Prior knowledge:
Strands 1-2-3-4-5-7-8-9 form an eight-stranded antiparallel barrel. The radius of gyration is 20 Å and the shape is elongated. It has one helix at residues 5-18, and strands at 32-40, 46-53, 57-64, 76-81, 84-89, 96-101, 106-118, 127-140, 163-176. The longest helix has 14 residues, at 5-18. The protein has a domain at 31-92 and 110-137 and 165-176. By secondary structure, it is mainly β.
Amino acid sequence: MRAGPxxxxxxxxxxxxLGGGTALGANASAPGEISLFSHPTTSGTSGTVLIVGAIxxxxxxxxxxxxxxxDPQGSYVxxxxxxxxFEINVAALTDKLKSRDAATCSAIFSGSSxxxxxxxxxxxxxxxxxxRTSELHALLASRYTSGKNKGQCKLGGNxxxxxxxxxxxxxxxVSFG
Length: 177
């Protein structure tokens, strides 16, 4: 069995399936479905973004207020991509406690909602649509070592978790106009 040609064959097949490497993502003005995947930072207020489908682009996102100014408690997500920007109104997305285990000091928070896409620039000027957003936050907390809460889990407030996992994703249809 020859292993050499396989990666090249797979790459060529992938390029043919996606319409060639140079054209990938070039026509973002066609309406269609997109899927957004993000890996937030531990604060959840920013992170990397990958978008596939009718938009093929990547970049970063930042929590912001309605005017596009950075705000960790903001109701908008400003998506800054290589070919332009747009915002997602996530005001309806509220995380809910799904499970908490005091014995292991672990917790899972998750939420989902619909969100409007708006205020595009660059290649995404005129973007509009609705996405179904989902967020998941799992964490392992430390315990208080002294004081009135000794032995209890440090959850909430400004307590820093020992370890955590965050994800944010969205899927829906967009159009440009």
